[in-house]
Amino acid sequence: MYHDGEPNAMENNQRDTTPPVTPLPDEAREQHREEIRAFADWIAKLLDSVIQIPGTSIRIGIDPLLGLIPGLGDVLANLIGSTILFLAARLQVPKIVMVRMAMNMGINAMIGAIPGIGDLFSVWFRSNLRNAELLRRHATRRTTHATPWDWLVVIGFIVGTLAMTVGTFAFIIVGIRTLWHAGTF
Fold this sequence. Notes:
There is one protein chain. The strands form two sheets. Strands 1-2 form a two-stranded antiparallel sheet. Strands 3-4 form a two-stranded antiparallel ribbon. The radius of gyration is 25 Å and the shape is extended. The protein has two domains: 25-144; 147-185. The protein has helices spanning 9-14, 26-48, 62-66, 72-90, 95-112, 117-125, 127-140, 148-181, and strands at 2-3, 6-7, 51-52, 59-60. The chain is mainly alpha-helical. Helix 2 (26-48) runs antiparallel to helix 4 and helix 4 (72-90) runs antiparallel to helix 5 (95-112). The longest helix has 34 residues, at 148-181. The chain is built from eight helices and four strands, in the order E-E-H-H-E-E-H-H-H-H-H-H. A hairpin with a 2-residue loop joins strand 1 and strand 2 (6-7).
């Protein structure tokens, strides 16, 4: 490859001649970050509030409409909504805030899977608008530290999920014991 510390003629012809990437000036970097935040807002509005129901102040997006398509609709809406989560990662939003955003998506996906009720829940819950707001709030700050409220929400969700899991398991055990003692098994 190298002879006497100098590249040979073949290596000179194969070198990458693209100029090095220079970091964006602060103003251009902030403009780029704002474009990403605006795109997240646009996705959230499309999914959660793009259409106003005539004669009311109620707004819906394509998320509950897609939810009317059995099976595929909810998956598609959540895939589109997950774009906001990827944009948050790109803007280096704190991980705990991203967990909170993922929880919003998970709640919307779980309850949204219930036919009829889930679509009404999506109209009310608006997980994508919530996530876009979290992204905007935490990506606009100079520091990217999570707030105590972010931690409280995540810890509360985990404790609540564990409590529901234990409660469901206990309900099943009690049900089986009751049926066993009643002689049903």
